[in-house]
Amino acid sequence: MIKIVKRDQPSRAIFFFTPVLAIFLTLVAGGLIFFILGFKPFEALKFFFIVPIADKYGFSELLLKATPLCLIAIGLSFCFKSNNWNIGAEGQLTFGAIVSGGVALLFYEQEGFYILPTVILAGAIGGMLYASIPAILKTYFNTNEILVSLMLVYVSKLILDYLVVGPWSNPEGFNFPETRQFSDSAKLPLLFEGLRIHAGIFLALAAVVISWFVFYKTYLGFQMKVSGFSLKTAKYAGYKGKKMIILVFLISGACAGLAGVGEITGPIGQLHREISPDYGFTAIIVAFLGRLHPVGIIFASLVVAITYLGAETAQIFMQIPKYTGQVFQGMILFFLLASDYLLFFKIKFMGLKK
Amino acid sequence: MNTNLKISNVTKIYPGCVANDNISLEFNSGKIYALLGENGAGKSTLVKILSGVIIPDEGKIYLNENNLKLNSPLDAKKNDIGMVFQHFNLFETLSVFENLIIDSDEQRESLREKIDTIMKKYNFSIDLDIPVLNLSAGQKQKVEIIRCLIRSPKVLIMDEPTSVLTEQETSELFLSLKKFSEEGILIIYITHKLKEVMQLCDEVAVMRRGKLVSVSEIKNENIESLANKMVGQNLKIIKKKKAKTSSDQLIKITNLNFTSEDPFETNLMDINFSVNRGECLGIAGISGNGQSELFQVLSGEIISEKNSIEFKNNYIGDLNPQERREYLMAFSPEDRLEQAAIPQMKIFENVALNNFKSSNFFDNGLINENKIKEHSKKIISDFNVNTDNIELKSQFLSGGNLQKLIIGRELITSPDLLICFNPTWGLDVGAINYIHETLIKINEQNKSIILISTDTDELLKLSDKISVIHKGKLSKIMNAEEVTSEKLGILMGGAN
């Protein structure tokens, strides 16, 4: 007989084990899906998860995809840890890219060491501005930040669409929906000859270290933590709870904005319609898979980045639609949420009684 | 007709606690039974089993020799067991009549007649056609009782019915219950208030930690004997020594007003009082009359006009709680789990919530964990918090231990004024005693207390002066010796 028993307290071992379990279950379910579709499951999984990162180029691509995911997820972890459900990182990424792209275009064909930092800063500010909308509406007008931040994603994408088709489109671009190429001074330097991995990865690593320090070691982080658990307690302790809410949104927006900068000044080098394959949404999965902890997020971003690459390889070699990648991302979140049940309950196997 | 209710060997086990350990009890109509016990003794579990909300792991229930299968509250209703819970289950925006007929399939007209007869018989006067939200707590309870009476129950169970009632409403309730009992309804009265048991009941069953400790007739018991059975040890009786009357004024509130935008909050009107050093000012009242708002205004969670609060000759009405703490004020809010502490955080993190500049918990914006931990250890040993692990999440502390931690956190900095709101709410007698002793000690050290409480006995025990808050207004301030609980009850009900 199997009995499900509530735990006296959530298990800490299980807390770190469930993400691993979720990934394992995703692989099993993924193999099953491939089998049903008529592929050899192990071979398909190999194409999905091992082939893409087997060489130097593949590994560089992995880091390239993981960089924005990690950066955004770090920002989101501030929001999620304090119970602010910002799911509009994709919009903040887009708006950050728009602002920084605009600044980069201002420096068209110019050179100077100051250009890149200005462009990066502009991106962070753009993301912050965009994140401040749901934050202010939430704190002062009691709106729901989930809805507002989500809907603003589509607004930002339409703004980008308008700009690259209209006023910012490349005059010599034969009406393609894209801007001019940025000058080299406005681009993030590449790290290795022939590989696409760029200096944006240092932004992500810096974000990891800074966020760990701020959240776990500073008074500011402590106040954010308290405000997140209970605004009533924050008020009682004399913290400015509303300012804390706005602050976490700003941090999260800045990180998403920086991710946007990394994309357009890194591999893309200009603004066009599709600057992000939904990094902003996928980063939500990364944040939770990494247990909202900076180190966890690094690992989670690498795991999830593989699904992007694997989907492309699988499409090329096996003619499986690349949307399978999203199926895998969905499954990871699904299995993670499902196995979190084990945090609070344990399964007891008992002999048959009577 | 005689009714006999028998509980036979009922056991209910929750993870980590045996809520009911092999309980057997027998009740007969014509008598009023008390089920007495501290919070967590297992009374509520037993009552929920009787009303079909919880299914016991083992044991049976018999009504007039019939074995009852109570798998849902509906089964209890069908078997003529009526139940009035501590918290009302009424739809505030529906009318009284709509609330009464909502779970009945009888004709509206015949029900109306039936309700009228019941109301006449027991002298209830409630307008059936006004929305429930316009009723007082006592009236709402009557609606709940009528809802049971419509089904002419054989058994009526009352779960802590007086916690929201004034003295007057309580005595009215007792009269009604006695009448029901005379008419043959078996009444089981759940409470932890000893005085009520002595006043109302014929027999008393005492529970402690899930076990039935004793069943006896009231005439063989007195308050002390019951208290000792309930707690399982001999209680010290604490009495407050008359405070040295000091005329050294510590805090003075002048023409304090608060108007809320939230319709569910109470506005405060023209509050004036002062407290001298070494004094305890008690503020009595039925909950929801502005106590929470008053606490927040005093603590600085709600900012008021600068000049309305004068503390040690400084005007501090516009300061937030943290700034007020620097003047040596301390605060213990009512809600331990949602405000005074954060259950998901560790003990030492909760200690850091009360932060002074001089406590150096946060140097240059960084957390000084060693300092906080050192301080936490001192609180735990000085205030008898029953744990030695300050890394423990505070949700694993019992209510009493958590409250000791909170009071300790507030007091270890030796503030001049402690403002506390229902400091012993929901605690067991042992913890209550400890908190009361601590509060008396503060007064003896010439520090002052503002005690906002809904527990009249507590106020009479601890206060030097007492005032009553009703609909956001304070009554005149009285010397505690001149006050009786009856007098407080009248003022709490809104009379002058």
The average pLDDT of chain A is 90
Residues in β-strands, percent of chain B: 15-25%
Question: How many separate helices of chain B?
Answer: 17
At the first level of CATH, the class of chain A is: Mainly Alpha
Low-confidence stretches of chain B: none
**SS elements, strand count of chain A:** 2
Report the sheet-strand fraction of chain A: under 5%
Could you estimate the helical fraction of the residues of chain A in percent? 55-70%
> Main interface pair?
A-B, 23 and 32 residues
Determine the number of helices of chain A (DSSP H or I, runs of at least 4 residues). Answer: 14
> What Rg of chain B do the Cα atoms give?
25 Å
Summarize the helices and strands and which ones pair or pack.
The complex is a heterodimer of chains A (354) and B (496).
Chain A: E1 2-6, H1 12-36, H2 41-49, H3 56-81, H4 89-106, H5 115-141, H6 145-165, H7 200-217, H8 219-229, H9 231-237, H10 241-268, H11 279-289, H12 294-318, H13 324-339, H14 341-344, E2 345-349
Antiparallel strand pairs in A: 1-2
Helix pairs in contact in A: 1-2, 1-13, 2-12, 3-7, 3-8, 3-10, 3-11, 3-12, 4-5, 4-6, 4-10, 4-11, 5-6, 5-10, 7-8, 7-10, 7-12, 8-9, 8-10, 11-12, 11-13, 12-13
Chain B: E1 4-14, E2 17-28, E3 32-36, H1 43-50, E4 58-63, E5 66-68, H2 73-78, E6 81-84, H3 96-101, H4 108-121, H5 137-149, E7 155-159, H6 167-182, E8 186-191, H7 194-200, E9 203-208, E10 211-217, H8 223-231, E11 249-258, E12 268-276, E13 280-284, H9 291-299, E14 309-311, E15 314-315, H10 321-326, E16 329-332, H11 336-340, H12 347-351, E17 362-363, E18 366-367, H13 369-382, H14 399-411, E19 417-421, H15 429-444, E20 448-452, H16 456-462, E21 465-470, E22 473-474, E23 478-479, H17 485-492
Parallel strand pairs in B: 3-8, 3-9, 6-7, 7-8, 13-20, 13-21, 16-19, 19-20
Antiparallel strand pairs in B: 1-2, 1-4, 4-5, 9-10, 11-12, 11-14, 14-15, 17-18, 21-22, 21-23
Helix pairs in contact in B: 13-14, 14-15
